[in-house]
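Trying the structure run again after the queue cleared.
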Amino acid sequence: MASVLSEPIFSTFGWQKVGPQNQDWDCVEQQKHNKKRAKTHPSDVVFRYPEPYLGFDVYLNTDLKSYGANSINKSTLTPHLRSLAQAVECANKCPKWAELYTLESKNWEAHGLLFIYNHDGDYDRDFDTVLNEIHSSEAPVPLGKRVFVLGPSQIEFLDSVATDINIERGQLKLPDAQHCGFYYPDLDKAKAQAKKTLPAATIETLMGPWIVLRYQTVEQQTIRAGYYFYYRGPGVTVPEFEYVLDYIFKYQLLEDFDQISIRLPFGTKDAPAIFERAKRSYQDVYWPLAQTTTARSEDRLLRINCHLIARFKERFSATQIGM
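Done. C-alpha cells:
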C-alpha cells in the first residue's frame, strides 16, 4: 500500500525512481552492524533528485511501511530506523549499491527515508511525540548523513498537495510540469544553483511548513505567472498569516504579472476570512516601512488570495492490491 501511494506523490514533486525495487545488497560493515545471518541491507525503492544549493544528486534509500493506527509506536519504529541508518552508512560505501542506483558521471550522497503510511486512516496522535521517544543511540545515523521520517499527517499533506496540483493541471488552471518549478530562495550562506526554481522539491522542502510552486507560461503574448503556496498550518490567527506574507515580501515573490494562491489542505473554515484581516493588518503595520505608495501596496496584496483545498486521506483494499 505504501508503495502504491508513494510513487504518484513523489513523481509529482519531481523525484525520479531509480534502479531495482525490493533489492538486497551487501553489507560492508558486517561486524559493526552485527550481521551474523542476513549479511545484506534492503532497498524497497530509491529516489533521486538534484540538490539545489550544492549541485550534487541526492539519493534516498527508502523504506516503505504500511501500518494500522495501533501499530505505529516506538517498538515498531525503532528497529526500522536502526536498520535504515545502517543501510545509509553502507550505501555510501558499497560499490554494488552505487552500481545499482547511481550515475557515475555525477557527485552524489545517499540518505535515508522512512515512509510510515497509516492504511486504515485512524491514526490521530502526534507522530512527532512517538519519534521523540526514540533516542539517537537506538538508531545511530552515520556522521554527515541523515534519515528522514514521514509520518501519517505529513503523508496526508503531501498526498493532498500532489492531488491538488494534478487536478489543477487537469482543469488547465496550472500549466504542465515543464512550465513549473519549486521555489528555493537564496540563503545567508548558500545560493540556489543557476535558477531559483527547479523541477524537484527536496525532502527538506516537503517536510517544511510550506511548499512553493512557481509557474509561468506565455499564451497569445500574455504572461500568466505566479505561485501556488501550499501551507501546512490551520490558518487560525492573523500573526500566522502575517508570517506567511512576510516570507512572500522578504523574497520578493510578487513580480509585475504574478498571482499567489495560498492553499490550505488543513485550514479551518474561517481561514480565508482571517487571511483578509491579516492582509489589512500587514498593510497598516509593515508596508509603510517599504516606502511605497498605498495604491501599489494594495495592488500587490490584491494579487494574493487564500483558498481551502480538499484534504485527501487515501485508503486501500489489501484484497484488491493482492489480486
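The chain has a mean pLDDT of 90. Worth checking whether this holds up in the mutant runs.
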